[in-house]
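From the thread on structure requests for the teaching lab: each student submitted one protein with a one-line request. Submission from student K.M.:

"Model Mitochondrial fission process protein 1 from Xenopus laevis, tokens only."
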Amino acid sequence: MGHQQQQPGKSSEKDLYRDTWVRYLGYANEVGEAFRALVPKAVVWASYGVATAYVTADAADKGKKAANSYKESPDQTAQVAVAVVDTFVWQALASVAIPGFTINRLCAASLYLMGRVTRWPLPVRKWATTAVGLSAIPIIITPIDGSVDWMLDSSLRKLYSKSH
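Reply posted by the TA:
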């Protein structure tokens, strides 16, 4: 159900932001993108607000956990910063930016193609586009999560390990 890498300050207890239904708030913007053809743009932007609030709350939670875990450590501030930055960047990419873009483009392409190859009326094409977008969400999650892990492991996370 998303990012599984052990984060600084993360214990083996159930994580509200990763191991419960709350995780799905991170995908609110994908649902918004899937419905873009049917709803006002303000609804789509509101879905990004929900997803961004989730990302921010998870990053704050991981920072608080790191602060508690490294209470007596001289590098507590650095550990908290690593936990917050890593969580925020990972979640922003894996839960908001990349899947939102992916669903947006998939829906735009499907609406365009249906207009070219079918004689369906526009409302039917819009509903079909929404169905395509919604059905793609569970398919894209795992590859995007893995790609973001690889991307951060190959870049940003190398900086963390060098500083400690």
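TA comment: The longest helix spans residues 76-117. Confidence is low (pLDDT under 50) at residues 1-10.
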